[in-house]
Design brief:
single chain, five-stranded antiparallel beta sheet, 2 helices, about 40% strand, about 10% helix, about 180 residues
Amino acid sequence: MPGIAGVHLVHLDPHEDPRGSLTEVFRRSWLPEASEVVQINLSRSRAGVLRGLHFHREQADYWCVLSGRAVVGLFDLREDSPTHRRKAEILIDTEQERLGLYIPPGVAHGFFAETDMTLAYLVDRYFTGQDEFGLAWDDPDVGLTWPSGEPLLSDRDRSNPSLEEALAHARRSEP
């Protein structure tokens, strides 16, 4: 398990037969504390891409890597959490096992694509940009260990603020 309160790793069991397989990737009953899913997004990344770190005050994510291998980095920003400021790194490799990953609001998240990969992520809030925050993927105060020190980053992720700057900004932006 990831070791961060509220984060759940779901082992997805394929049902195989001579034609191939069928895998349930999400069931509402697996995450009774989660809100209703309202949007599903599909992200494709080339090997060497790092996306993140991102976080939301209100939105939860449920990730399912459909193909490829990724290192997921998590960091608990929730001040009232028993795992506040704890990090976790999880390898998800679809050649080994299919996994679902539930990430509650307040947990920063990102991933490094070790291979070309496709990620489906389900969210419980429509995207508006109002609940989108970021922090530096390589901030030493976060302390995540990524497979590469020189990943391919978006301009946004390259310019994300430090942990302390991100937290200060998020507090100022609270409703």
